[in-house]
Specification:
Number of domains of chain B: 2
Number of helices of chain B: 7
Order of helices and strands of chain B: EEHEEEHEHEHEHEHEH
CATH superfamily of the largest domain in chain B: Cobalamin-binding domain
Strand order of the largest sheet of chain B: 7-6-8-9-10
Distance between the termini of chain B: 47 Å
Largest sheet of chain A: 9 strands, parallel
Radius of gyration of chain B: 24 Å
Largest interface: A-B, 29 and 27 residues
Shape of chain A: globular
CATH topology of the largest domain in chain B: Rossmann fold
CATH architecture of the largest domain in chain B: 3-Layer(aba) Sandwich
Helix content of chain A: 40-55%
Structural class of chain A: alpha/beta
Largest sheet of chain B: 5 strands, parallel
Strand content of chain B: 15-25%
CATH topology of one domain in chain A: TIM Barrel
CATH class of the largest domain in chain B: Alpha Beta
CATH architecture of one domain in chain A: Alpha-Beta Barrel
CATH class of one domain in chain A: Alpha Beta
Radius of gyration of chain A: 23 Å
CATH superfamily of one domain in chain A: D-Lysine 5,6-aminomutase alpha subunit
Oligomer: heterodimer
Strand order of the largest sheet of chain A: 7-6-5-4-3-2-10-9-8
Mean pLDDT of chain A: 92
Shape of chain B: elongated
Mean pLDDT of chain B: 89
Number of strands of chain B: 10
Structural class of chain B: alpha/beta
Number of helices of chain A: 20
Low-confidence stretches of chain A: 537-544
Chain lengths: 544, 249
């Protein structure tokens, strides 16, 4: 049975207008993304071409090579043309050797012309094609394993976090969590990784409140979850973060190492990490194109709007962010089933009718994005350290998840804001989820908010505030003539944080593309269309 | 005298009842339950009552234990740091700043190190505030510069100088392996290096993991822990500003 329709009686004209405004706000920004490149996009391209590893000081070879090319010929033509030209000229037998020589200043790069340029580009296309094929193969492997082991038998999928800092500790914890019922394992990254302008290498055992995202850590964890998937007869998904300054590289590594979901928000890095807006949008488009091709489900970060602002007053900013995330994602080639749009249970529980409002907000997201596997995130801001009350709050959070057919449920811990979860916290949290889902998931069938009642009215109000805000964004402007969305970000429209396009971290890694810019990865990704018979994993049929 | 001796209160005065939950790395069987009871007794619960035991996977068991604790607490032996300054309303704080400084009090705030969690600093600084109290941005006579997350110490010092900061607030929420201590000592050392002696701004560190009374070790003037409200911070800043003014004039 498909979802009962029109639970909220939203005016289709208003919904259309919201989407049209989001598209209008996104368009000039997409144009900027298409006309710029970044050091991280270029490094990701080299990673697709098979360059990995780092020097003895742990500086990755892709960083060395991009820096060398940038210093000598600039990045505006793309890194691959000078790099493959150098290989064709016999400067080095392979990328790794070339990078090593470049690091010690023993190679000179140039921008080839004519026939030599064509040859370099052809060689680059072949080289980068290898990585893209690895991504395609990983996608096919995932689809095969899902056919073999099966998807979780019920929705929402249960999403659990591990975060010890040590990949070799994470692995048994992740396997235990899967055995206890997790459908998705997220390995939280070490705090601060988003601001590193390189991807660390190798298996890591030292992290702060999380574990570094590295290719080797990805590989180790995916292999461990494959093992446990076979044991459990259920494909256990792996999540990490494509965010921060290395978004494109992490996306490429995730695609190649068959991660299944990636945190990837259109504006999170700008607003909450003070990363330059242009850098973010350029990096993000590339990373989303990779995710689209890799069959990865993205998770967006709307919960952040609610933890930094009042969850009632800021409810419409979640909707606006979801609409923008949807627009940017679709433009990059992602399909509805890949959009884990986020929202969270963060209304102050002291406020009367807080639960009804949570229901209204969650239903609004469900109705606006019927095909997307929405990601429902637990309370954090009003978890006080009173674990008993927190356990109850998580129960109500789970109940909203059950009643509104969420696709992905991040399991709330009663020890949120107290300690990293104990083994027993996780067990209790899963008992909480199971009890609520067993007892009440059928409620979605019975639950129809009355026409023009509290829930319908509240949802419509939030939607109309979202439309107003989108309208203000597309009409925003600044003296510099920036894209309206950039102007809006600059003047503090989102989350009260003012982030001008000329500020923030990573700006010096942005470069406008020249007319002869060539990047075989972006060329291939721009031309890529999803396979016709794509695996449909939408949550549409949640209500059983 | 006995009025100063306390025991936990379950449902009867003096019953000493506490509840406790923990996990042992043992499969759930009789021996595991015995081990749990033995642990509880060693923790001073006598009699201890095992009310719940549940296997969590093949290797772990979760226990809930109730029991009467044999320990007593003499309240006279409890030493705490009492607030040494009066709590001011926003209006009184504003008045005091205006009278003493004849300009706005400049507060620069940041999360330093790798900590990206601005909840603490935002709760104190943002107009939105915390626990029903408005943040320092709300104070007419306070100018707030909130630098946000993952601010580098040299940047913080430079900005504090550029803004002529009277006070610098740093927040450390998520921390591991004592990162909050390293970050804070590094921060206070950088300020002492950058400023002439006696002119360092009021340095305040906040976060749930700081130990009360460790100001001297960290090189800061004041530490605030979990549950601190903007009003307490504002009152402290006014108090400290007054004290410093009295010293110099």
């Amino acid at each position: 049975m498909s979802r009962p329709h029109a639970l909220l009686d939203l005016d289709p004209a208003v919904v259309r207008r919201a989407r049209a405004l989001a598209a209008r706000a996104a368009e000039p920004v997409v144009e900027i993304a298409r006309s710029h490149t970044t050091v991280s996009v270029e490094r990701a391209t080299l990673r697709l071409a098979g360059l990995s590893g780092a020097d003895h000081e742990r500086v990755p070879w892709v960083n060395h090579l991009v820096t060398a090319v940038r210093d000598e010929v600039g990045l505006e033509h793309g890194v691959t043309t000078p790099v493959y030209d150098a290989l064709l000229r016999g400067e080095a037998p392979d990328l790794m050797t070339l990078a090593q020589k470049a690091a010690s200043g023993n190679v000179s790069f140039r921008l080839p012309t004519g026939r030599e340029a064509t040859a370099a580009r052809r060689a680059a296309t072949k080289g980068v094609g290898g990585g893209l094929r690895t991504i395609d193969r990983s996608r096919a492997t995932r689809e095969r394993l899902i056919r073999r082991h099966g998807d979780p038998r019920t929705k929402p999928w249960i999403y659990l976090i591990v975060a010890t800092g040590d990949i070799h500790e994470d692995i048994p914890q992740a396997q235990a969590a899967a055995r206890e019922g997790a459908d998705i394992i997220a390995v939280i990254r070490s705090t601060g990784q988003s601001l590193l302008d390189y991807v660390p290498e190798g298996a890591t055992r030292e992290g702060f409140a999380g574990t570094y995202a590295t290719q080797e850590n990805f590989r180790l964890m995916r292999a461990a979850l494959d093992e446990v998937s076979t044991e459990l007869g259920r494909y256990v998904r792996l999540t990490n973060y494509a965010s921060g300054l290395c978004m494109p590289e992490i996306a490429a590594l995730a695609g190649m190492e068959r991660l299944d979901m990636m945190l990837n928000d259109s504006m999170y890095g700008i607003l909450f990490r003070d990363i330059n807006p242009i850098r973010t949008f350029v990096d993000q488009r590339f990373s989303r194109q990779v995710h689209a091709r890799a069959g990865i489900i993205i998770n967006t970060g709307e919960d952040n709007y609610l933890t930094t602002a009042d969850a009632i007053e800021a409810a419409h900013t979640v909707t606006v962010s979801q609409l923008l995330n949807e627009r940017f994602a679709k433009e990059a080639g992602l399909e509805d089933w890949q959009l884990g749009l986020g929202h969270a249970f963060e209304i102050n529980p002291e406020i009367p009718d807080s639960f009804r409002m949570e229901l209204a907000h969650a239903l609004l997201a469900r109705q606006l994005f019927p095909e997307a596997p929405l990601k429902w995130m637990p309370p954090t801001k009003h978890m006080t350290g009173d674990i008993f009350r927190g356990y109850l709050l998580d129960g109500f959070f789970n109940l909203v998840g059950a009643m509104t057919g969420q696709g992905i449920l991040l399991v709330g811990m009663m020890t949120e804001a107290v300690v990293t979860p104990f083994l027993s916290d996780r067990d209790l949290a899963l008992q909480n989820v199971r009890y609520v889902m067993n007892a009440a998931s059928g409620l979605a069938e019975d639950f129809h908010p009355p026409r023009d009642g509290f829930i319908q009215t509240r949802a419509r109000q939030v939607l109309s505030e979202a439309v107003d805000l989108l309208d203000r964004i597309v009409h925003d402007g600044d003296p510099a003539g920036d894209a309206p969305l950039l102007a809006a970000i600059a003047d503090g429209t989102f989350g009260l944080m003012k982030r001008p396009p000329t500020g923030g971290k990573g700006l010096d890694g942005v470069c406008e593309r020249a007319d002869d810019y060539d990047n075989p990865a972006t060329t291939a990704l721009d031309a890529w269309t999803p396979p016709a018979a794509t695996r449909h994993t939408s949550t549409e049929g949640v209500v059983r | 005298m006995s009025a100063h001796i306390v025991r936990p209160y379950g449902d009867t005065t003096g019953d000493g009842m506490v509840q406790l939950s923990f996990t042992l790395p043992l499969p759930h069987d009789k021996r595991a339950e015995g081990a749990a009871l033995q642990l509880a007794r060693r923790m001073g619960l006598d009699p201890a009552l095992l009310v719940h035991a549940k296997a969590m996977g093949p290797d772990f068991t979760f226990f809930v234990v109730y029991g009467s604790t044999t320990h007593l607490v003499d309240v006279d032996d409890v030493h705490v740091v009492e607030r040494e300054y009066p709590l001011l309303s926003a209006k009184d704080a504003n008045l005091s700043i205006k009278r003493q400084l004849r300009r706005k009090l400049v507060v620069v705030g940041a999360c330093i190190g790798t900590d990206a969690h601005t909840v603490g600093i935002d709760a104190i600084l943002n107009i939105k505030g915390f626990a029903g109290e408005k943040g320092l941005e709300y104070y007419r006579e306070v100018r707030v510069v909130n630098l946000g997350a993952q601010v580098l110490v040299p940047d913080l010092v430079a900005r504090a100088r550029a803004e002529k900061a009277d006070a610098v607030l740093v927040s450390q929420v998520v921390t591991q392996k004592d990162a909050h201590i390293h970050n804070t000592t590094q921060m206070s050392a950088a300020f002492r290096e950058a400023y002439p002696a006696g002119q360092v701004p009021i340095l305040v560190a906040g976060g749930p993991r700081f130990e009360e009374g460790s100001e001297a070790a960290l090189g800061v003037d004041r530490i605030f822990g979990r549950g601190t409200t903007p009003g307490e911070v504002a009152s402290y800043l006014v108090h400290e500003m007054t004290r410093r003014k009295a010293k110099t004039s």
